[in-house]
Design goal:
With 245 residues, the protein is α/β, with parallel strands linked by helices. It contains 8 helices and 7 strands; from the N terminus they run βαβαβαβαβαβαβαα. The protein is globular, with a radius of gyration of 17 Å.
Length: 245
Amino acid sequence: METEGPRRAIVIGASSGIGRALVGVLVREGYRVGATARRAELLRELEAEHAGAVIVSAFDVADVERSVAEIERLAEALGGVDLAVISAGVGHPSTELSWPETDETIAVNVRGWTAAAFAFMRLFEANGTGHLVNLSSLAALRGIAGATAYNASKAFASNAMQGLRQRAVSRGLRITVTDVQLGLVRTAMAKVDRIPSWVVGPEVAAEHVWRDPSPPASRVCDARVALPRLGDEARPGFVWDRLRT
């Protein structure tokens, strides 16, 4: 993800987890960062922690009109944007097929995500260059009963990133589009009863994201879980359908 020249980044979903850790990495590497999230108090803490290097904006990406306006405002305040990272997202189990939780997943992970990604692409196309990074998940590779809406939303974003990359390449634009499909990370969103000891925390994951998605990569999988998940993809449908999740 390293770039030359001006270093101005916007991180969507920066108040906690991988997004917050990545802000610290970017500041260390010389970036000025626009950090966004819903929780204003956590953003204020982040701004104080990196005084002078981080400016913040509190909003919900599900409010697409405000989200787009704030992205444009942050880009102007930074004097432009060279790198955009979308880390915002929600994850709910689908065991009860609850519509309110499913609706929130769609509002944030699909509608909100799309509005933000398209807003960044418009800025990059106007500037003639840029790097869009989506922090996705290996959940994008296959659906499971226990997280039906979440996995589907990740598949949507990964598919959309492929389309945006094709748009950039086919038009000869100097825009890099990177979809980072991480494995399980020790964050509040990892809603499992027991997290294996080998699962890394957000700080390690952020370093992984910084090192690995170098242009022109379009997909990066976490090596610790890539092989098991590729094994999942190889299972025939009639076998996969009978697994309990």
